[in-house]
Design goal:
- The protein has 248 residues and is α/β, with parallel strands linked by helices.
- The chain has a domain at 1-75 and 152-161 and 186-248: 3-Layer(aba) Sandwich (Rossmann fold), CATH 3.40.50.300.
- 40% of the residues lie in helices and 24% in strands.
- The strands form two sheets. It has a six-stranded mixed beta sheet with strand order 6-7-8-3-9-10, with helices on both faces. Strands 2-1-4-5 form a four-stranded antiparallel beta sheet.
- Helix 3 crosses helix 4 (106-119).
- The longest helix has 16 residues, at 165-180.
- The protein starts with a strand and ends with a helix.
């Protein structure tokens, strides 16, 4: 479903991505991990059509994102780490606006809107202005908007920032259920426990290069066992930094 070949991105002399190759099949919940500045968000922005690569190519469901960005974007949803919502609309108005963008018939849009607002516990807030919603409610609304057109692929950059335990559990269960139903989910997170809990496979990137790829069991077997945190720190050099800090 997601195919990346030789993906490279330069910002002047800075190499954010360096020949990245990756395939994520349909229905996989894939976690893309790495330290700050490793290239995670750059990868997602290229895959969602917000950036053009310096070299290489990326496909979403067989559609080249650079060659036909409109067709590719119809297949995807994207939840960024710092989302923007239209504060002077209500949730119902916002979802109606999103439905119009994707050409969803009004009756279908109304049915899906009602179901999603109920799923995310936003029925009572449907007529309130978005600017009056809490952070958690705004995040839930963002999930509603991205699921409204039933995308084949959902990209999420840091899915649990600032959320309460109820919403965290809701989103974790939702992601697992949607991937089992065939949706491909590509997410980045610094919460390693989340990745260890939900991921079918995990990729670890450092300095724009993929340094490890596999299931949790495969990563443990290849890198000496332990938790995902142990594997992550060993691969990214973080264990040396932590040891040096405590020995100083």
């Amino acid at each position: 479903m997601i195919r990346i070949e030789g993906l490279t991105k330069h910002y002047g002399r800075v190499v954010a991505l360096d020949g990245l190759n990756l395939h994520v099949p349909r229905g996989e919940l894939f976690c893309f991990l790495g330290p700050n500045g490793a290239g995670k968000t750059t990868t997602i922005k290229i895959l969602t059509g917000l950036l053009r690569p310096t070299a290489g190519r990326a496909e979403i469901g067989g559609v080249d994102i650079s060659a036909d960005p409109v067709a590719a974007k119809r297949k995807i949803g994207y939840i960024p780490d710092m989302p923007y919502l239209y504060d002077r609309l209500t949730p119902v108005e916002y979802l109606r606006f999103v439905a119009d963008l994707y050409g969803i018939p009004p009756r279908v849009a109304a049915e899906r809107t009602g179901g999603l607002l109920k799923l995310f516990g936003l029925e009572e807030q449907g007529g309130s202005l978005i600017r009056n919603l809490s952070h958690g409610m705004r995040q839930r609304l963002l999930y509603c908007a991205n699921l409204l057109h039933e995308p084949e692929v959902l990209f999420i950059d840091e899915p649990l920032i600032g959320l309460d335990p109820y919403t965290i559990r809701l989103i974790k269960n939702l992601l697992k259920a949607r991937s089992r139903a065939g949706m491909t989910i590509f997410l980045t997170t610094h919460i390693l426990a989340l990745a260890q809990d939900v991921a079918d496979r995990i990729g670890i990137v450092k300095d724009g290069r993929l340094t490890a790829l596999g299931t949790m069991e495969e990563l443990r077997a290849a890198y000496g066992g332990g938790t995902l945190e142990d594997v992550f720190l060993a691969l990214t050099g973080g264990s040396d930094a932590v040891s040096a800090e405590y020995m100083a």
